[in-house]
Structure formats: structure tokens, C-alpha cells
Design goal:
Elements: H1 7-16, H2 29-32, H3 35-70, H4 80-117, H5 125-149, H6 151-165
Helix pairs in contact: 3-4, 4-5, 5-6
Length: 184
Amino acid sequence: MLGWNNLREVERAWAANGSVGEPVIKCEFEKVISMEYMVYFNFFVWVLPPLLLMVLIYLEVFYLIRRQLNKKVSASSGDPHKYYGKELKIAKSLALILFLFALSWLPLHILNCITLFCPSCRKPSILIYIAIFLTHGNSAMNPIVYAFRIQKFRVTFLKIWNDHFRCRRAPPVHEDRQEERPSD
């Protein structure tokens, strides 16, 4: 990772203890990866700015949709309330995904900031484990949110669930019902 690791510190500590040979590294995340990398490069460059940008974009999207929904409808135009209502529902679903992303990832990044900026601060191990669990759980949340918020995703999700996890194949749905009629 472009030199963002703690190998030098591990080697110095190994030599300071009078040990010979290759250092034995205890496989803990904070022992092998640099918190400078995790905070400055990962969080401050690749997580926080895009997250803030997405929040601003969603605020603008919601503002524009609300403004369109509050406009008077002219007789010649179709039904903008129906169109923008659908757009609002989709935007809410995507905003929920963004919120869940932030809720899942910010605790770990905040703990990383505490580790870097306050090395003497004690962090309960359970908080670290919960934060890591949340980051892993975020990957499982998106399909579930899509499945419950968007009907096409819900139908597909339930079909996959029934086919592969419950071992129950659903009968095929035909677009053209004429195929089911007996021939003359």
C-alpha cells in the first residue's frame, strides 16, 4: 500500500527487544497498518469528501423535486406529480442507502481518528468490534434496502431467495398468456 504500513516500527520493536531473525507480527489491524494511512489517505481523501458531496447532491435533488411538486400543473402537461412522486421515492431509497453507508462506516473511521490523534485514549475492544461488524454488515444492507424499497428489486430478490435458499422454484411467469392456451 505504497509504504503506508508499520513494518519499520515492528522491526524496531523487534530489535529493541534483542530478538534475532524475522520479526513476529501479531496480526491485529492497528499493528500492521498505519493510522496515518487510514485517517489522512483513506478517510479524509476517499470517504469523507465523496460522502459530503453526495449529501449535497441529494439535498439539491430533494429541493428540485419538491419545487417541481409544488408547481401549478398546466392542462397540457401530463401528470408531473406522478412522475416526480416516483422520482422522489427513488431518491429517498438512494438517500437511505447513503445514510446506511455513513452509519456503517463513520464509527470505524472516527475510532481510527481517535487512535491517531489521541494515542493515550483507551477504546473499548467491543466498540472496535461493533464498528468492524457494521462495516461488513453494510455490504449486506444494500440488496435488502433495494428489495424492500423498489418493487422490481423486491420481486427479483424474492425469486432468488426462493430459488436458491428455500429450494422452491416459482412457476415461470409468461408475458404472453397465449402460450398457456391449448392449441385447436
